[in-house]
Design goal:
This protein is an alpha+beta fold and 650 residues long. 18% of the residues lie in helices and 22% in strands. It folds into three domains: 378 residues, no CATH class; 179 residues, Immunoglobulins (Immunoglobulin-like, Sandwich); 73 residues, no CATH class. β27 and β28 form a beta hairpin.
C-alpha cells in the first residue's frame, strides 16, 4: 500500500504546500514538525534560532543555572525536549556532540582560567538589579563580554565521571545537591555562530572550528528550518513543501512552545529557586545574577491532518495536548506528559486564556478561537500558472520615487562601504547572483533597486542599517520577502540559506529584535523601506532578499552590502538640552535628570520612544540654546521644578 501511494504521488507529479499559522506570545521559542500517523518523525518545519543557531540547548554550564537577557551559560535541556527526542528517534538520526566548559566547573559563571574570547551575542549584565526576570524589558549588554565557548566532551571525560551540579528543587525541596554524571551526547545542536578567535588574549578551543559543520552533519536541514524569534501578538505563517515521495494519507503536525521564566502559582522562583547546592559548585555570579528561569515547561499542540485532497483543506486546534519537562534528570524527560486542569495534579496547567501564568496563551487564539492552524494546497503541473519574463523590471507607480529629503537619501555612504548590489546593477555579477538565469521559468520576479545605507540615527549606525528595494512582481499572491543577513558572501541560493540568518527588525521595544517582515501588499515597482537591526559594530554584511509566493516558490536572490560603523561612545551619555542649559554634562542637575532617564524612562517602551525622539532632535535644540544666554536661563527655570521632584524619587 505504501509503495502504491508513492508511485501514485510520483506519477501525478503533484505538489502539496502546507501553511502553518499561529500567533505567538512575545519571546517564545518553538519547533514545528511532522510525523506519520504511526508516530514516526518525518521532518522539522521550523525551529527558532536560539535553539537551532545560537545553541542554547547545548553550551557550557549546568542545566539549572540561572538565566537573563542573552545569558551566556547553562544548557537549556528543557528548551524544546519533545521535538529534540522525536528528531533523535527517527531512523538514521544521530545525537549531537555535547559541549562543556573548557576547564571550569559546570556551575561556575565567573572566569577561573584563561578560557574566554569576545562574544558578539551573549553577555552577562553585571548590575544584579538589571539581570532579574522583571527587568527583561530593560534589555542591554552594557559592556563587551568575553565568554567561554566551550569544547566537546570526550570519552576521557565520560570515563572519569564528568558531572554537573544538580539540586532536586521540586516543591522547594532538595537541600542536598549532588553531582550528576553527564552523557557524552546531546539532543540539541551546538552554537553555529562562532568563528574561532585566534588573536592574542583569545582562548577558544580548537573544537569551536567544527561546531557548525558537525551540527550540519547531524541535521543537514538546520539552516533552512531555523527561523528568527517571531514578533509577539503578530500572526505568523510558515510554508512547507511536502516531498513528492510522501504518500496520501494521515499525518500529524506538532508545535512545541517554550517561554523561559513563564511563572504561575505552581512553577515559579519559589518552588524552583536558584540552586545553591552542592556547596561550592555554584559561584557568586551563578547564585546572585540573573533569575531562576524554570517556569512552566514547554507545551505541545497536536494537529492530525490528511494529504491527498485536491481541494484546499484546513485543520485547526485550540488546546495543547501535553507538556514536557525542563528537568534533564527527571524520569521520563522528553516524553509528552498529559495535561491536567486540577491544581492537585502534578501535571496541572493554568486554565486561563490570557494574562500572566496562562501557559496556553503562549499561542494566542485567533479570531476563530484557534491557536494552531494548518492549511493544505494541492497543485498539479496543469494548474501551474504560465511564467512571465522575470528579466523585465517592474513598473513603478507614479509616486514610487522616494522624497530626497526623507530616509537615507540624505545619508552619505560610509568610507569603505560598498555600493548597493542588486539584480539590475553591474555589481550583481560580482556577488554571484544572476537575476536573468532561468527567467523563462520564473513566477516570482527579481528584487530590483536593492540598496543598504547607514541608518539616519548616528547613534545606531553600528547596529542598524536602512534597507530599500522595489516590490516584486509575482503571478500568484506573494507570501513573504525573505531577508537574510550574512558576514560571508551570498553567491547563490545555497549560500543564501547556509550563510544567511533571517534579518531582525531595528527596535528599542522591550521584546527585543525579532523577525523582520516586509509588507507583501505593496504594488510591484513601489519602494519598500525598512530598518535592519541586531547587527554588530564594524562588521561587513551581505544582505540577500528574495520573494516567495503562496506556493513556496522563490524568485532570484538579490544582494547588497554594507559595513557597520564603530560603536560611538560619549564621555557622558547625552542630556543635550540640560547640558547646554547648565553649561556642562557633569553638572549635578544634569546627573539628576540622567538618573530619571535611566531608571524611569529607559526600562519601558513608551519611555524609550520618548528618549529616542529626544536624541533625534535634542542636539540641534541644545546647539541653539547654548548660543543664547536668555534661552539657557529660561530652560533652567523650566527644569527647576522637574529637578526638585526628581531628587525625591528613589
Amino acid at each position: 500500500m505504501l509503495l502504491a501511494g508513492l508511485l501514485c504521488a510520483q506519477n501525478a507529479r503533484a505538489d502539496t504546500v502546507l501553511t502553518f499559522k499561529y500567533i505567538p506570545a512575545p519571546r517564545v521559542q518553538l519547533a514545528i514538525w511532522i510525523e506519520g500517523a504511526s508516530g514516526q518523525y518525518l521532518a522539522t518545519v521550523a525551529l527558532t534560532e536560539a535553539v537551532g543557531f545560537r545553541g542554547i540547548g547545548n553550551r557550557p554550564g549546568a542545566s539549572q543555572m540561572n538565566s537573563g537577557y542573552r545569558w551566556p551559560y547553562g544548557r537549556r535541556e528543557g528548551a524544546l525536549p519533545v521535538w529534540a527526542h522525536r528528531r533523535a528517534s527517527a531512523p538514521g538520526a544521530r545525537p549531537f556532540p555535547r559541549v562543556i566548559f573548557q576547564k571550569r566547573v559546570e556551575g561556575l559563571a565567573s572566569q577561573t582560567t584563561q578560557d574566554q574570547s569576545p562574544d558578539s551575542y551573549y553577555c552577562l549584565q553585571f548590575d544584579a538589579s538589571k539581570s532579574t526576570r522583571d527587568q527583561l524589558d530593560a534589555i542591554s549588554c552594557a559592556t563587551p563580554f568575553n565568554s567561554d565557548k566551550g569544547r566537546y566532551m570526550t570519552r576521557g571525560d565520560l570515563a572519569s565521571g564528568y558531572t554537573e551540579p544538580w539540586q532536586d528543587l521540586a516543591a522547594g525541596g532538595g537541600a542536598n545537591g549532588r553531582d550528576q554524571p553527564l552523557p557524552l551526547d546531546s539532543l540539541y545542536p551546538a552554537r553555529m555562530d562562532i568563528t574561532r578567535c585566534t588573536a592574542e588574549r583569545c582562548f577558544d578551543h580548537a573544537d569551536t572550528d567544527h561546531y557548525a559543520a558537525d551540527v550540519r552533519a547531524v541535521m543537514p536541514e538546520i539552516d533552512a528550518v531555523s527561523i528568527a524569534t517571531p514578533p509577539g501578538d503578530t500572526q505568523q505563517s510558515v510554508l512547507f513543501s511536502v516531498p513528492r515521495s510522501w504518500p496520501a494519507g494521515d499525518y500529524v503536525a506538532f508545535i512545541e512552545v517554550n517561554l523561559e521564566g513563564d511563572y504561575n502559582d505552581r512553577w515559579n522562583q519559589t518552588t524552583y529557586p536558584t540552586p545553591e547546592n552542592p556547596n561550592g559548585e555554584w559561584d557568586y555570579y551563578a547564585k546572585t545574577y540573573g533569575y531562576a528561569y524554570r517556569g512552566q515547561p514547554s507545551l505541545v499542540w497536536q494537529l492530525p491532518f490528511q494529504l491527498g485532497a485536491e481541494a484546499p483543506t484546513s485543520f485547526e486546534t485550540n488546546a495543547p495536548v501535553a507538556r514536557s519537562s525542563w528537568d534533564f534528570w527527571a524520569e521520563g524527560y522528553g516524553a509528552p506528559e498529559p495535561l491536567s486542569l486540577d491544581k492537585a495534579d502534578p501535571n496541572y496547567i493554568t486554565n486561563t486564556t490570557s494574562g500572566p501564568g496562562a501557559g496556553t496563551n503562549r499561542l494566542r487564539a485567533d479570531a476563530s478561537g484557534q491557536r494552531f492552524v494548518l492549511q493544505t494546497k494541492h497543485v498539479t503541473d496543469a494548474a501551474q500558472p504560465p511564467p512571465f519574463d522575470a528579466g523585465m523590471p517592474p513598473e513603478a507607480s507614479s509616486d514610487a520615487a522616494m522624497n530626497p529629503s526623507q530616509g537615507d537619501a540624505s545619508v552619505e555612504p560610509m568610507p569603505g562601504d560598498s555600493g548597493a548590489v542588486d539584480a539590475s546593477s553591474p555589481n550583481a555579477a560580482d556577488a554571484g547572483i544572476d537575476a536573468e538565469s532561468d527567467s523563462s521559468d520564473a513566477v516570482v520576479g527579481p528584487i530590483m533597486d536593492l540598496s543598504l545605507r547607514r541608518h539616519p540615527n548616528p547613534l545606531r549606525t553600528h547596529t542598524w542599517a536602512t534597507l530599500r528595494l522595489r516590490a516584486v512582481r509575482s503571478l500568484l499572491p506573494l507570501h513573504a520577502y525573505e531577508v537574510r543577513v550574512a558576514t560571508t558572501p551570498i553567491v547563490d541560493d545555497d549560500s543564501f540559506i547556509r550563510e544567511g540568518r533571517q534579518a531582525k527588525n531595528a527596535t528599542d521595544a522591550a521584546e527585543g529584535a525579532t523577525l523582520l517582515s516586509l509588507p507583501v501588499d505593496v504594488p510591484a515597482g513601489d519602494y519598500i523601506e525598512a530598518a535592519i537591526g541586531d547587527l554588530v559594530a564594524s562588521t561587513h554584511y551581505y544582505v540577500g532578499v528574495r520573494g516567495t509566493d503562496e506556493l513556496n516558490r522563490h524568485g532570484p536572490v538579490s544582494v547588497a552590502e554594507i559595513t557597520t560603523t564603530a560603536r560611538r561612545f560619549a564621555t557622558v551619555s547625552p542630556c543635550f538640552v540640560a547640558s547646554a542649559a547648565y553649561g556642562s554634562p557633569l553638572a549635578a542637575q544634569v546627573g539628576v535628570l540622567r538618573r530619571v532617564r535611566d531608571r524611569y524612562l529607559l526600562p519601558h517602551a513608551p519611555g524609550r520612544a520618548w528618549v529616542a525622539s529626544y536624541y533625534a532632535h535634542g542636539a540641534a535644540l541644545a546647539s541653539w540654546i547654548s548660543r543664547h544666554p536668555s534661552a539657557r536661563a529660561a530652560v533652567r527655570a523650566a527644569l527647576l521644578p522637574v529637578i526638585a521632584v526628581a531628587r525625591w524619587l528613589p
